[in-house]
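Complex 299.
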Amino acid sequence: MPPLFNETAATLLDGKAVASQLHDAIQQDIQSLLSGNTSEKNPAVPKLVVVLVGDNPASHVYVNKKAKTAKKLGMASEVLIYPESTPQEKLEAIIEALNTDASVHGILVQLPLPKQINTDRVINTIAPEKDVDGLHPVNMGRLLSGDPSVCAPCTPSGIITLLKHYNIDISGKHAVILGRSNIVGKPMGLLLLQENATVTVCHSKTQNLAEITQKADILVAAVGIPKIIDATMVKPDAVVIDVGINRTENGLVGDVDFESVQSVAGFITPVPGGVGPMTIATLMQNTLKLYKKAAAVCL
Ligand code: GUN
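Predicted structure with guanine bound:
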C-alpha cells in the first residue's frame, strides 16, 4: 500500500516533460518546413538572437539555455554579450542593426538590464515583428485587444499551455496572480481573462493578501519572494503555479513553500522543472511563429 502522503499530495505539473513534447513538435515542424526549402543561396532557417548586457550570473545561465535549445531544435541562434557599462545609444544601435538583418526572426533582450539603461526605450527599439518576448507596446496592445496571432510573453503564455495540457478548467475560475510585472503578472492576467477566468491581481500594496489567495482556484505566484505562499494561504485543491526562481543559501527556491502547499493544493508546479522549461519552449514556439510570419510576407 502506498504511503498516505502520496494519496493526498498535489499532482505535479511537470513542465519539463511537457516542454520536451513541445520541443519534439517544434523540431518536426522546422524539419518539414525546411525540407527542400533551403539551399546555399537561400539558407533561411528560423533565427533567434539573444542580447545580454552585464554579468548577472543567472541571466548568463538562462540565455545559454535559450540559445542551446534553439540550436537543438534546428534553429540558428546567437548570444550577443556586452559589458555592464554599455551605453543606451550603443544598445539601441545594436538592436536597430538586428531589426534590419533579414536573417534574424526573433530578438530577445534579456532582462533585467543594468541601471543606466532605460528598459522601456530599449524594448521600444525592437521591431514589433521580431519581438519574440511580446513586450513591445504594439504587441502588448495586441494582447490587450485579444489578437490571437500575437506572440504573448513567454512565461504567462507557457503557463496557459501547461494548464491546458493537464486539462485544467480555467473558464469561470477565480485566478489570483501575485505580481504585476509587464513580463509576467500583467500579461498573465490578460491571458487568463481571455480564457474566461475571473482575475484578481495582487501586489506589494495589496491588503489582506491571504484572504484573497485563499479564494483562488488558480494561484500564480510571481513576485520573487522565497516561499511567500504557504499552506495556510491556499484553498484546498487549488492549482498553484510557482514562477519564482530565487537563489538562496538553501539553493533554488520558488515563491511557494512547496513542502507545505503540496499537501493542500490539487496541482502544483515544482521549482525547478515547472514554469522555467515552459518559458523556454514558448520562446521556441514564438520564434517559429515570427519566422513563419516573415516567410509569409516574403512569399
Ligand atoms: N528575464 C527573465 N525572464 C525573461 C524573459 O522571459 N524574457 C526576457 N527578455 N528577460 C527575462
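The longest strand covers residues 47-53.
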